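For this section, I looked closely at a protein sequence along with its fold in token form, which I now present.
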Amino acid sequence: MINLETPKKFRPLIGQANQVAREVLRPISRKYDEAEHAYPKELDMLAAVIDGMNEGGDGGGAGAAGVRRKAAGDGEGAGNRNGSNLSTALSIMEMCWGDVGLLLTMPRQGLGNSAIASVASEEQLARYGGRWAAMAITEPEAGSDSAAIRTTATLDGEEYVLNGEKIFVTSGDRADLIVVWASLDREKGRAAIKSFIVERDNPGLKLERLEHKLGIRASDTANFRLEDCRVPKEALLGSPEIDVKQGFGGAMQTFDNTRPLVAAMAVGVGRAALDRTRELLAEAGIEIDYDAPALAQPAAAARFMQLEADWEAARLLTMQAAWMADNGRPNSLQASMAKAKAGRASVAATLGCVELAGSVGYGEGELLEKWARDAKILDIFEGTQQIQLLIVARQLLGKSSGELR
């Protein structure tokens, strides 16, 4: 049975992650928010420390590099297993309490690493392990609907030739590898979509521009054009066979791993705002009494408790989705539920905290306004709020994507 208390064996890791967030990320948060597209050199040494934390832990967990999904049934009979999925989510919550943009731009901590960890063969893991991978899914004609991808991959001898355009690639300019989603045969629809590992210095992968953004400014967001971009056959992640019966499921398994991680990012940002607002309210003489009903407290305290309760629900859903992955249970529904809830709760919490803090929250003297800007992307990338709710509805009602659009 699931227990949503923080496992004792992860507490040292969480403490380390919190120390990094407090002493390294938080002090330079505003600096790199203002210096958009400047690479945070402070992260190079920190990345080496994170690697050491992963090597010394129980199957990893520090940072956002992702973890390998257990095969279905591996958790059966093993009791309650708290593994690397949960430890990774918990450490991400702590790191994003420091700064989510800096976490996203940390070497070897890209969402592409989670994609590789999810579906790569052992040979691919050995070949690409220890390298920084970004993930390129979104296109001008394909945003949240990943099945509408128009980038193509054509087999030519021992190589695939990729052509198309990818936009909003997080850490795309700084990463070593780009995980590109492309279609082997657009006439066969979703089933033909596969992911390919492309070296960042591949001459067929051309950087078009870097985006200027509302939030997570410390992280670069790149737009690419693929022009006759050649990659070896071995760069295809998963099976090259087009299984129409399986449909898009194989590719979408990647999201079962990455969506709880994005939910964890949102939980971390939301907690940062709530923690600081609690301090500001206390300085203003407003104490929050958790033993008293909300109606018996000041309006600001009642509003804060409402935001915190919503945030707590998101945290528990995120832990559940990660725990299910650790125990070999299908978690597509829970991953989407966690991502939807955490994204919405984080936006509500950060904006609500700005409101509660008044002019202090709106000014640059505090990080509250920055967290409000950072939170919005966490409700968008890896599938928007609306797409997550659609996925949840399909699964609960037993409808296909064709039946419920």
In short: Residues 133-237 form a domain with the Butyryl-CoA Dehydrogenase, subunit A; domain 2 fold (CATH 2.40.110.10). The CA atoms of residues 161 and 230 lie 5 Å apart. The chain has a mean pLDDT of 89. The longest strand covers residues 159-170.
